[in-house]
Every structure is written in structure tokens, then in C-alpha cells.
Design brief:
209 residues, alpha/beta, Rossmann fold, nine-stranded mixed β-sheet, two-stranded antiparallel sheet, 6 helices, 32% strand, globular
Length: 209
Amino acid sequence: MPTVHVFDHPLIRHKLTILRDKRTGHKEFRELTEELAMLMAFEATRAHPVREISVETPLAATTGWTIAGQEIAVIPILRAGLAMESGITRLIPTARVGHIGIYRDHDTLEPVSYFTKLPPDVAEREAMILDPMLATGGSTVAAIDILKRAGCRTIRVMAIISAPEGVARVHGAHPDVDIYTAAVDSHLTPHGYIVPGLGDAGDRLFGTK
């Protein structure tokens, strides 16, 4: 699918391998998630437009570059997306941050939305949805629906690991939305977990299991 971008940077592949390891504790897991999000954002913004400006160094005037085009709004899906947000806002400190609360019903595997707080100018920004796992795709599609109702025209999805089923669902519902991921894994279990995946990202991030 042309809207899916899988990163193959050596650092991303290396850190993802450590993240998958069941022996990785929650402190290191959280740090790796932040680092991966930062590296992925660095790669995803490679084509962001810039404009030329003049700048004075201590020795002379020279030409430099500044980011042009749309400002960015970072939208983590609660709760696991929070760890990715902290990594990306370190890289892009001018980004506004919104939050969308969605959980997956364990019986139906369908998304349930319970909280939304977006920047007031989100419609004028490029919205970057953050969730470590794109599994069934239900939560991601629901988040895109919310952002489009708020007027967003440019939306990207950042997921550390994706399942083919989730990618297909997002693509089917929103073919105009690009997906950026470090890996597209084999498949989902009947309970909606990605295989081989890395387990429950929220529990491993916050030490709740």
C-alpha cells in the first residue's frame, strides 16, 4: 500500500529488537519507546518544507533554513501513546499536544472513545496520531474520525509496530492518511494482539502487569 512507510534505519531496527524482548523492564521499555518515536519523527519529517532565512553568526552573516508549511499537532492515543509524545516533543518543542482517550472493548475488540482534548487551532496543523501498536486499527480509525470532524486536513499515523489487519482497516477507511511504522508484523491473535509484537505496550510501559 503506497501510504504505508516502514522505516529500516539501523538504529530503529536495533532499538525495536530490544523493545520486543520480554526481558526488557518497564524503565528501559519506556526510554526505548521515547527514543524510537523521536527517530521515527525525524525520518517522517524528512520532506517537510523549509524556507531560506538570513542569520548572523558571531563572525558573519549567512544563509540558513527554517521550517515552513503547517505547524504540527501531536495527538497521542491514551495511554500508551504518551511515551511517544514525550520523545517527539523533545525533537519538535513547538508542536501543540492534544489527547484522545480510546480503549478497546475486550469482548468486541471495537474502540470506545472516552476523552478528547485538542489544540484550538488543530484544523490548521498537521496532526500526528501516536500509538505504539496499530493492531486491529479500530482505535486509529476512531482517532482519525475525531480529527477530521475537528477540521484536520493533513493527518499522519505513527505506530512502532503494525499488524496487516490494522493497516488494511485504516487504509480502507482513510486512504488519504499515511502510516509510518518501524515494522509490519505477521498477524493478530483472536484477542487482537500482534504476533510476534511485543505484548501489551501500555502494561510494559507503566509496569501495570
